[in-house]
Design brief:
By secondary structure, this protein is of the alpha+beta class. The chain has helices at residues 42-60, 73-83, 96-100, 142-151, and strands spanning 12-15, 20-22, 30-35, 63-69, 88-91, 104-109, 112-117, 120-124, 130-134. The chain has one domain: Glutaredoxin (3-Layer(aba) Sandwich), CATH 3.40.30.10. It has four helices and nine strands, in the order βββαβαβαββββα. α1 runs parallel beside α4 (142-151).
Length: 153
């Protein structure tokens, strides 16, 4: 688990357009880095659309949004297009960034334990340090939490 005040781990992953993207590409900017289990599932769609709907406000507060899941590039491209997502989605099939940020672990559904992506978000300041950590989030209300953090509330 990454905590507030620690240096955010760098990574290099492909985005939904097939381009390599590294966290270090955003040096000097605030980054909202969110990890989610799977494109086009109800919770993940709710969360992505909430970030989409709040995107202009997040940008106005000086931050960019990046989503990461283990889904492949082509699936991300379809998901992004289908829902009009204005931010990048990164493919992490090897769980490089997912693991580095502690977003992989035990989950439970209907009383059954299994391993998977833990829906979590990290806000990384312009200096590369984590300024916000949300280890288990609710898809519906999460964008509002991020806006409150960015506003300093």
């Amino acid at each position: 688990m990454i905590t507030i005040g620690t240096r955010a781990p760098d990574f290099s992953l492909e985005d939904d357009g097939g381009n390599r993207v590294s966290l270090s590409d955003f040096a000097g900017k605030t980054v909202v880095l969110y990890f989610y289990p799977k494109d086009d599932t109800p919770g993940c769609t709710t969360e992505a659309c909430a970030f989409r709907d709040a995107y202009d406000e997040i940008l106005s507060l000086g931050a960019v949004v990046i989503g990461v899941s283990p889904d492949p590039v082509a699936r991300h491209a379809r998901f992004r297009e289908r829902h009009g997502l204005p931010f990048r989605l990164l493919a992490d099939p090897e769980r490089e960034a997912i693991g580095a940020y502690g977003a992989w672990g035990e989950k439970k559904m209907y009383g059954k334990a299994y391993e998977g992506v833990i829906r979590s978000t990290y806000v990384i300041g312009p200096d590369g340090l984590v300024v916000g950590a949300f280890p288990k989030v609710s898809p519906k209300d999460h964008a509002a939490q991020i806006i409150a953090l960015l506003r300093g509330a």
